[in-house]
Amino acid sequence: MAVTLKTLLKVAPFPQEQREKLFELYDQMSEDQKMRLSVAAWTALSEMYFAKLKYETDKLLMEIQDGKRKYNINDFKELEARLIHEFAEKLESAESEAEIGEVRKQLEQYKTKPFTQDNAVFSPQK
Fold first, then answer.
1. Which of 18, 34, 52, 118 has a CA that sits 20 to 30 A from residue 11's CA?
2. Considering the domain boundaries, does residue 59 fall inside one?
3. Angle, CA 93 vertex, CA 37 and CA 34 arms, to 5°
């Protein structure tokens, strides 16, 4: 099942009043308007995803730094996979690995700015 614009509108962080208005006008929108709305929804979801990823990554790094957990690169990979899966579930498209990959691709595509973890090389803390 592909992610539809209506599904995106249901989960994108738009104010409820605005979301209701968009649904009312949906059938009257041109394809160009729908495309721009899709880009806006994916951009908003992407920003939410990467903000949550940064928060969770920072939290994990803090636990490592404080000695509460040992460094393991798999923890970071599992964190990313868990967050992707959470977003895929929200989009009702977690039925197959291909759809999860599509969600990951869309989140990356609409990412607006680089985050610290994009350039970080995780190395063990002593």
1. 118
2. yes
3. 15
